[in-house]
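Obj: model holo form, ligand = calcium ion.
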Amino acid sequence: MDLAAVILAAGKGTRMNSKLPKVLHPVCGSPMLSYVIDAVTGAGVNQVVVVAGYAAELVSRAVEGKAEVVIQAEQLGTAHALIQAEPCLKNFSGSLLVLCGDTPLIEAGTLAKLVDQHQSAGVAATVLTAEVADPTGYGRVIRDGEGRVLKIIEEKDASPAEELVREVNTGIYCFKADGLFDVLKQIIPANAQGEYYLTDAISIYAGRGQDVGVVVIQNPKEFAGINDRVQLAGAEQYLRGLVLDDLMRTGVTVIDPPSTFVGRGVSVGRDTVLHPFTFIEGKTIIGEDCIIGPGARLVDAIVGNGAVIQNSLIIESIIGDKCTIGPFAYLRPGTKLGQGVKVGDFVEIKKSLIGDGSKVPHLSYVGDATVGKKVNIGAGTITCNYDGKSKYPTIIGDGAFIGSNTNLVAPVEVGSKAVTGAGSTITKNIPAGALGVERAKQIMVNHWASKKKNGNI
Ligand code: UD1
Ligand code: CA
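Output (holo structure tokens):
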């Protein structure tokens, strides 16, 4: 059966105290709204409408290609918000999921269950509810003696007896689209907040003698709405925990989960070990048997099997099998390392290819370079790739040996098995197998130390 979803996200989220609309605040690296969109899509929804208001252009941009956006210019209540989606759903007559953009922990499976029960019961509306220890702030679900839902009453409108009810409205519903908008238009803002409450749709259906379905959520954490940055941090911690649990179950060792940060889009192979203070972000893919961290940050990186990466920052780079990186290496976008490459301490590599078995062990900058296989780049080597205006390439052939503290002034080419003398500033190409050396002759001043002592210098 056809399934669509409307996500209410017009509010500013005042308590976030932010310029950014609440639903675009990231949780584990992605905007909270994207989690809600992923959850409804995962539940089988093929049309998603987002109701935006505050900073609607930003919201539109963030959901481009994933959802249609309608604007609610004034936030007059949740029913009013849902009515704004009507033009997008004119020809739609299936089931409609309605939920909020600030509940990033909701899972596709829970929504699928809600839809399933809604459809098999054949009712006009089904509410996802939760039994909680402390119902403060939520709408209470009021049932009759036989357990039929009569209404949802907001806390501000509740009688003392109603306030005691611990079954709350999660704000997540499934409706029959047919007739829904007619019901919504009957709602009036006769309540403590003067708002058009979507929850009043429930009492309208019940008042007509129509059964309202109820699904009680199993894990109350899932519907927790984020209202401020303390709750945002709580959601981050919870989601991060889920990601790490999944990794551990698939064979990744995480030495210290509270200090390990892995994004949802990351994949890590079996028997890889993640050490503390490690951040793995974006679309990073890590192979099997790697040792990552302590203190590593990888963003959109691809790492082969058996690599060791310590205390390093790696961005948009590809690292071959059995490479060792760090401590304190910085691999910038466009870096590609072959197999068994060593990149040691205080080395920066940018947009360069380094061939199998090559080593850049210490204190070097390699930029815009193509380095062959089994090359040794001595400590302190710098590719001078920029003249203030343009960037130029450096090419180093297989088996070359770059002496310590060499400046390679690009564009320049060092042939295979060629050698540069330590401390040379190389401005001319070096043919294969040749030695390129450029430095002043050493001068000796005999007895200098004693002359200095006697004041003769
Ligand atoms: C709502 C429910 C309450 C439920 C709770 C669950 C109503 C009247 N109450 O209360 O029963 O327990 O959610 O979290 O629906 N929004 C708009 N436009 C508006 C108003 C709200 O887009 O005009 C969006 C907000 O951005 C937010 C969501 O709807 O994402 C919920 O609105 P909010 O005012 O926070 O409702 P609650 O008081 O939380
Ligand atoms: Ca809320």
